């Protein structure tokens, strides 16, 4: 198992943040998105929020590759629809590269 942590900012607007959280409740999420995540080798995913900053913790099988997930997502029209919807709420971190949304975090401490 591998663990990956990511960060992303939401647009700092309470109404947009509320709507973003609505779409991430299990009863409102798109089943195709859940299926896409699981089929890529993700075994667990959690998103936490403080203010407008999000942290995502993703556990994957040992064969998971970010590059493969990106290719799979780009070829999936439903994932592309979801990503387009999510851009309404999200803004890249100042140090994000290109059209990168979620930025991979570097672990600096472990117990």
TrEMBL record:
Q: Which InterPro entries match?
A: Carb_Metab_Mutarotase, Dimeric_a/b-barrel, Rham/fucose_mutarotase
Q: One MF term in GO for this entry?
A: racemase and epimerase activity, acting on carbohydrates and derivatives
Its domain of life reads Bacteria
Which Pfam families does the record cross-reference, listed alphabetically? Answer: rhaM
Q: What is this protein called?
A: L-rhamnose mutarotase
Starting at the broadest rank, the lineage of the source organism is: Bacteria, Pseudomonadati, Bacteroidota, Chitinophagia, Chitinophagales
């Amino acid at each position: 198992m591998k663990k990956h942590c990511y960060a992303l900012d939401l647009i700092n607007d309470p109404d947009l943040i509320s709507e973003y959280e609505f779409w991430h409740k299990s009863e409102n999420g798109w089943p195709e998105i859940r299926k896409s995540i699981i089929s890529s080798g993700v075994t667990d995913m959690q998103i936490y929020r403080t203010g407008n900053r999000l942290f995502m913790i993703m556990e994957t099988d040992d064969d998971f590759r970010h590059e493969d997930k990106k290719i799979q997502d780009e070829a999936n029209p439903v994932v592309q629809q979801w990503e387009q919807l999510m851009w309404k709420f999200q803004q890249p971190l100042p140090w994000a590269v290109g059209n990168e949304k979620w930025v991979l975090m570097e672990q600096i401490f472990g117990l």
